[in-house]
Amino acid sequence: MSSSTTSKPAENKPAAAEKPKETRQAQLGVLEEDDEFEEFPAADWDDGQTDLAHLGGAAPGAAKSGGDKLWEDNWDDDDIEEEFSAQLRSELTKVNTSGGGAMEH
Amino acid sequence: MEAAIAAGRQGYFKGFEHSTMATPCRRRGGPSTTQSDDAGATSTKGKEALRLSPGQRAREEPSLTHEAASMAQYKGSIASPWDDVAIHYVLICTQIAHGRPADAFQQQCQLVSSFVRFFVENTGWTLPALFSILRDLRDLADDADGPMGEDSKMEAARVVAKTFSACLMDRTSPIEESRKWGVYYVVGLVMKCYFKVKKIALTKNILKALNNNNEIPALEDYPRGHQVTYRYYIGMLAFLDEDFAKAEKELTTAFYNCTIRSPNNQTRILAYLIPLRMLRGHLPSKELLKRFPILDDLFSPFISAIRSGHLAAFDDALTTHEARLIDLNLLLALEKARELCMRVLLRRVWLMLDKTTRVHLKFFEAGLRVSGCEVDLDEAECLVANMISKGFIRGYISHEKRMVVLAATNAFPLPSERSAPYAYV
In the Cβ-directed half-sphere of B64, how many Cα atoms lie within 13 Å? Predict the structure, then answer.
């Protein structure tokens, strides 16, 4: 009972054991509701131990991710080809022919 | 349960020097007990130090009184208040050893108050010891409450909040030795207490006191651990308050300053930062998700649905993860991210029509239908109108002709280019 919330190891928690039924649910591990922001192993550290290098000197949270490989701000893909594309294309063609209207006016 | 208590007990006996009984963390500073040699005047007070709380007396009177009495002989054997602190400490260890977490917690409250009497009259050199005993206080409160209770944690929050004032009200120490260097750590701990018992509104007072004080050093000058913890909780408060712009700013700074040696904390920050950035049109890269498998599991279904504009897949992911997302308070943010998915779908319809500037609504209606969204022409018009008003599409709708007239250039701007992206969510 009492110590269970505080004395458990911070990592490698057997999250799966708690919710055995939800196999395909995301295993939240450290994000289980009970968990909380942990004490840091040291009070301070330098830039080399952070992800700041990814920013390449830019301000964090800038509108453009620039050289930051952790985020993509331009992810439009004009050439996706999967099942969904085929369905979409065929439906649009159907609408185009059955409706009698041209695609362009 | 026995094992848990034993583990806790062991941890505590290792004690002040390195770790708390709860979190296997390394202590930054020295133990308050070992610093006692340096302390000031000899004790003349402290009779109350050994007084027991009513609860303790009722339940454990014979043994506790005996323990306390046997310790009393050590009073004055070292400089005050360290004799009190040491006696409390030994009694706390005894109580933990006897499986009395509630008594241990009460005793720790008294230890804190003995310590604070010294603390407020000196510079901030004892801050590491303060942090250490406050961490122990909170951990003991957790154990005293058990899984369901919250009274001790509420009490712990109040005690910690009092030490906040003791840090803030330092008008005499030179700045480099000021007790003010403790404020952010202590505020972080108070927020941690209130988050744990889900009473986040109670953080308002202490944050107001902090923000109204303009004599403390800039947050950036504090140790990174203090900064990141503080920003995480401020970001979380803003997120829960649906102030997404502020939440993103704080959590972004927290993430980039967080040490990569605390991947669990990075995971916690990103769990909220990723949805916030998605709303702004920034998707997490594969490189980022690969480092955090839990987040990869949770968010990848949404991200791939957004990339392909597949609303049905997005809605499936929402249904599948609904319970977890509610637990994490993330459902609302991800529901709002559905608009990105809608945008990609409408854009793909437009691409397949060779980027024409005039698209009859029936095409968008068909696209929505294929994507699992059963709508009629009017509903499709309404959805498109929403997307225009939110800046996802540049153009207008001719209602009579049921025609969407799109801008000749940049008809579907990148979501990341929208100004004030959170204004419409």
Answer: 23
CB contact under 8 A, B25 and A41: yes
CA-based nearest distance B73→chain A, Å: 32
B297 to A75: CB separation less than 8 angstroms, yes or no: no
CA distances from B214 to B177, B191, B210, B224, B227 (A): 18, 21, 8, 20, 17
Contact call for residues B46 and B83 (beta carbons, < 8 A)? yes
Q: List average pLDDT for each run of 10 residues in chain B, which is 425 residues long.
A: 39 34 34 36 37 46 66 85 93 95 96 95 95 96 92 95 94 95 96 93 94 93 97 97 96 96 96 96 95 95 95 96 93 96 96 94 96 94 96 96 96 90 80
Confidence at residue A79, expressed as pLDDT on a 0 to 100 scale: 79
Q: Cα–Cα distance between B21 and B97 in angstroms, integer?
A: 12
At A33 the pLDDT is: 60
- Chain A, 39 to 98: residues with Cβ < 8 Å from chain B are 39-45, 49-52, 54-55, 60-61, 63-65, 69-78, 80, 82, 84-85, 87-89, 91-92, 94-96
Say which residue the tokens 């290792």 belong to.
B14
Say how far apart CA B131 and CA B129 lie, in whole Å: 5
In angstroms, the Cα distances linking B425 to B112, B135, B238, B302, B391 are: 46, 38, 14, 17, 11
Domain count within chain A: 1
Task: Decide which of A81 and B333 is more confident.
Answer: B333
Q: Is A57 contained in some domain? A: no
- Give me the mean pLDDT over the A78-99 stretch: 85
Mean pLDDT of A22-48: 77
Would you say residue A35 has pLDDT above 80?
Answer: no
| Residue A11 is assigned to a structural domain of this protein | no
Residue B48: CB atoms within 10 Å: 10
Residue B169 identity (one-letter amino acid) = M
- pLDDT value of residue B319: 96
**Residue A82 in domain:** yes
pLDDT of residue B270: 97
CA-derived radius of gyration, chain A: 25
Q: Which pTM was predicted?
A: 0.80
Per-residue model confidence (pLDDT) at position A64: 62
| Residue A76 forms part of a structural domain | yes
Q: Do B192 and A74 touch (CB under 8 A)?
A: no
DSSP state letter for A84: H
For A55, the closest of B21, B256, B323 (CB atoms) is: B256
- Stretch A30-49: mean pLDDT: 86
With CA atoms as reference, the chain B residue closest to A4 would be B4
Residue A92 has its nearest CB partner, among B223, B349, B416, at B349
Helix, strand, coil fractions of chain B, as percent rounded to 5: 70, 5, 30
Residues spanned by the domain of A84: 65-100
Residues of A in contact with B362 (CB under 8 A): 95, 99, 101
Select the residue from B23, B237, B296, B327 to test the A interface by mutation, using most A Cβ atoms within 10 A.
B23
